[in-house]
Design a protein that fits this description.
single chain, 3 helices, 0% strand, globular, membrane, CBU_0592-like, CBU-0592-like domain-containing protein, transmembrane helix, transmembrane
Length: 83
């Protein structure tokens, strides 16, 4: 396995961990859905999925996660605007 393959897999697993962690934390009421923490965990996690799914040719997943990143960044902008 090449170093590039290992890096792509690690980025994908990090992304999955962040999205799962964000979901667990919001479901447990530990963080709010409109919190910066939740949104950043989703943005970075989805970006990890974009890298992984794009590198593996899973274009529908890559596109979905590009949209996910966009929603998170838009929400972060809205949170900052409303503050």
């Amino acid at each position: 396995m090449s170093a590039e393959t290992i890096l792509v897999e690690a980025v994908g697993w990090l992304g999955a961990s962040l999205i799962l962690g964000a979901y667990i934390l919001v479901s447990m009421g530990r963080i709010a859905a409109r919190s910066r923490t939740f949104q950043w965990m989703n943005v970075v996690g989805a970006a990890g999925f974009v890298v992984n799914s794009g590198a593996n040719g899973a274009i529908p997943s890559a596109v979905l996660n590009v949209i996910w990143v966009g929603i998170g960044l838009w929400t972060l902008w809205a949170i900052r605007r409303d503050a």
